[in-house]
Amino acid sequence: MQPNASASNAGKRALVYLVLALALIWTLFPIYWVVVTSLKSNAELAASTPSLLPLQPVLDGYRTVIERGIPRMALNSVIVAVGTTIVSLALAVPGSYGLTRLGLPRRIGTPLALAIGFALIFPAIAIVVPMFQLAVRLGIYDQLGTLILLNVPFNAAFALWVLRTVWMDIPRNIEEAALLDGDTRFTAFRRVLLPAMLPSLIAVAVLVFIFTWNEFLFALIFSTSPRAMTLPIGIAAQVPQHELSWQIVAAAGTVALVPVVAATVLLQRYLVRGLTFGMAK
Amino acid sequence: MADVRIERITKQFGQAIAVNDLSLHVRDHEFVSLLGPSGCGKTTTMRCVAGLERPDAGQIFIGERDVTTLLPRDRDVALVFQSYALYPHMTTRNNIGYPLRLRGMDKPKRDAAVEETAMMFGIDELLERFPRQLSGGQQQRVALSRAVVRQPRAFLMDEPLSNIDALLRVTMRAELKRLQQQLGITTIFVTHDQVEALTLSDRIVVMEFGTVQQVGKPLEIYRQPANLFVARFVGSPPMNFFEGELRSEAGETVFVSDMLRVPVVAPRHAPANRVTLGVRPESLTVESAPSDGATRAKIALLEPLGYETIVHATIGSDVVRSRVADGEDLAVDQDVWLRIGSELLFDTQSGVLLS
Ligand SMILES: Nc1ncnc2c1ncn2[C@@H]1O[C@H](COP(=O)(O)OP(=O)(O)OP(=O)(O)O)[C@@H](O)[C@H]1O
Ligand SMILES: [Mg+2]
Question: Which of A105, A177, A246, B268 has the most other CB atoms within 10 Å of its CB?
Fold first, then answer.
């Protein structure tokens, strides 16, 4: 029985690895392909059978990307994404705390939470035109701050919605223990509750950052000049200009990938813990 | 250390009255248990003392101070929660040291105090672990250490033993008793386990519907329950009850029901219409032959527990329970004769103890 069992175990394990390998290829290959493409020469890209590795890596694509102002757009993207993350969390952290801990009656708390949840499914396209008119009227059109302002509602609602469940998973007794140990409501929040929810908070921050980093619609409509143009717009702009150069598009795409990959790798520990959002302890 | 005085507090949640005009004086150094069925307001009472709940009416004093409106942090009481409520992101050391840190104690002194307390609870090996790396019993000791370390004026414990397994619970019970004797901290202990209450407490407060039914020493509560509720609630197996009336026969007072005729000591207070006779299972002896004054019954069920046997017997349609030291010669369906050793009389209507 033993050998049989271990044989079937080995078979099962092989299957698991196979599935994992396929999933990895499925997710990682496009990333690999973008990076490799950005390093290939135009001649090589024109070859009818593409090679897995660049034969002679060149940096021409990156040179062009720099000439066309992509670094400035990357900086804009960073500013918008970081700004949106900070503002959204600054609203969502106390907001979600209040929604779950201030003892709101059900008939107020539930509709409030639902209204916030509604912001998540509201199609952005529906408000773009009136918002655009408003921005022009107010003279805040084509500014990074405006993009942050536009990104915050959705992301703050998202963060609040998630953090609400995080709060609900942190036992009230922990806060009460801190109050008895000598904390005030505020210091208990800062010294006990925030640290206890930090992994989830970081996970939410990374998600908000990535959402904003990828955001396209607002950026497309509300920025026209390089001073407010973000990376997704910049990359898209590379496509129809003159002739289509995969090398340049791939180089710009690689630039866009860097922070996302970096955040994922650096904060992986928190992402894994936080993304379960306290569901399984 | 200090005494705790609760004066006529009431706490409502919407329509539900959790605590109803409750008064209680816990003396300095005393260990008092709040005992009662689920939902009778034990936790709410305790949370009012801790300051986590503000009573709608009434006052609470700790020592000489009226703390009714003070914040929890200004009351200097420690609470051990049923769920322990350890800080998940802190090690055992930092959990225990947290109240000291908030009092501004410097690190070397804090560490010394933490280590001493941890030693007392046998968790000095676990100081660098996080709560999730501890077993339930260990977490419980950390929670107790955190409460003890700051030497509060009063100790509040809300069913601290109910989340650990039966075997450990017995050990922890003894440990708690030793701890309280050693430290002498005024303690209010919530439980719905009567054995815990009876073994640990100087006095027991039996509660129902947010009110105090009786306050007394464990044996007082057991021997002289103030009313039918307390009589029914305390004791396992529960007291046997028979409904009937008192009659005077030839200068003697006799309790008479359909099945029973028992001479009783005449109660001081004039008995109301109907009375209830209460007999503890250990006061009901089982005899295998008829004799004068014994009542005939039939054994319905035997529960041998090793050191004693619980005999369930039927008198007419009533089931009564008796505990006997050795029940080896008893058998189900056997006819037996029950003799009442000592009994209590209650007014059936009001439930008040008459004897
Ligand atoms: N925050 C609250 N909101 C509404 N009702 C509450 C609240 N806390 C307690 N109650 C109600 O008050 C009553 C007393 O509750 P409490 O928790 O004090 O009971 P308990 O004696 O501790 O019971 P248990 O033995 O089950 O812990 C219950 O009927 C309960 O439903
Ligand atoms: Mg309770």
Answer: A177
